[in-house]
Structure formats: C-alpha cells, structure tokens
C-alpha cells in the first residue's frame, strides 16, 4: 500500500478495516498440542471419525472446544481419509 503512495492508515480507512486487523498475526503454536494428540489418536484408532475421537479426547481429560478440535481435524485433512 505504501508503494502506491497511500499510508496504512488511509488505506485501512478506505477499505473499512481497523489497523489492528491489518497487523493481526494468528498464533498457530496454540494448536500444536491438539495436533500432536489427534495424530496419536488416529494411529491408535484409525477407523474412528471426528465424533469418536472427540469423545476419546474428553475421556482423556482434554477440555478443548469441539469447534477448535474440528478445525484442526479438517486442517490436517483427516476428514478426507
């Protein structure tokens, strides 16, 4: 944006974005424990789908939200196996 002579502030204002949204960097390291646990469970229970794996996660004591686990499950393309 600065290459075209516009400041970030004016560009964001023209697009209707806040500057904090423009500078936002997601923290992907927070999902690492979920990824490692899901990969281990898939090795142990290869025929289980998302729902059964989520039940196993709960029984093991993990309190991750089902939407978060499902997002990671889909990012790992486990829903296509």
TrEMBL record:
Name of protein: HTH-like domain
Lineage, uppermost ranks: Bacteria, Pseudomonadati, Pseudomonadota, Gammaproteobacteria, sulfur-oxidizing symbionts
One Pfam family from the record: HTH_21
Highest taxon, organism lineage: Bacteria
Domain spans labelled HTH-like: 39-78
InterPro entries tied to this protein: HTH-like_dom
